[in-house]
Amino acid sequence: MTANLLARLEPARLHALEQIWAVLPxxxxxxxxxxxxxxxxxxxxxxxxxxxxxxxxxxxLQAQGITVVPTGLAHxxxxxxxxxxxxxxxxxxxxxxxxxxxxxxxxTDNWQEDxxxxxxxxxxxxxxxxxxxxxxxxxxxxxxxxxxRFVGDATLRIQEDALRILRFFRFWGRYxxxxxxxxxxxxxxxxxxxxxGLSVERIWSELKRILVGPRALDVVYLMQQAGILPVLLPExxxxxxxxxxxxxxxxxxxxxxxxxxxxxxxxxxxxxLKFSRAEAARLKAMQAEPVPLPxxxxxxLRHLLADxxxxxxxxRSWLYQARHPDVSGTDLRQRLAQLEIPVFPLxxxxxxxxxxxxxxxxxxVLKDVRNWWQQGGCNADKQACLAxxxxxxxxxx
Length: 397
Hints:
One of its GO terms (biological process) is tRNA processing. This protein has 21 helices and 9 strands. It is an alpha+beta fold. Strands 3-4-5-2-1-8-9 form a 7-stranded mixed beta sheet. Strands 6-7 form a two-stranded antiparallel ribbon.
């Protein structure tokens, strides 16, 4: 089985790894790449570990003409770049001190010590250049059985880094089957408050991935069961509304799904979790008015599209449907997607070129003409809009 593991890699990646192994024969694939190769899932990043210190790793690779970037020397990490693709290589480590957010580590040459500091058994496996999988904590069994289990004592793993609480739910959604691990759930429930010691940026990063990940509704239910939601979302959560949204198969949009999970005080939430300006603006826009309705005519929808992007209107439709599950929004969203986005054809310079005197009245005229254009379904062309504007200017205020 393991001999075929490396054969599942893309040829370009396998060729790059062969170059690294020629220089660092003791290097092993670690973490997610081993897990996903065994699960026959798509591979994201390819990470390796080595028993040599990072400076020695850099020198050895550079001596063979391989580009190396010191991406995290303090943490024992360098990145080899081969054919424009990154391969992160980290020196084996063991924890000296942890505080729930950061760890003080020292280098080691003991593979099991390094594996013992990882979060879950399915992430603690390594694979050498011969394709042999080294599994110190039963990760292969857990992966096959759909068990997401902490390495060693769950309580200690969480105390080392409280973000592992959220990582547990994310990985359970992706790899778990059946009931969640009892020891893990007990440890999470009793230590939920440790989440308050994490940076909000780390929390939002994990929450986004949970919301758009597999089985998002099941994961939210499990988080509710563990008492995580009140700690994570003190603004309050509406799991029932979230469930109604998910029942209709919404797009994998974290902001949209969050808008259903926390429909009230969302502005407070955006500030607390330090959303980017774009994220905060999207959340606010999704929860604003007007909401497109299935009964609206094409003229009315074009009117809305003139002011609001179609993805925001679609999001409002999803949220409306979650609140009114008897109202289907599928046809409406299809209509929105098929309509051309109207663009108001007139600008101030057009009025000036037509002989209008400059001044603040130009802006007022444009506003009035745009309103007339929208009321007519946004169909009037530039000439018609200009004629209407000149007629207004001729009539005076």
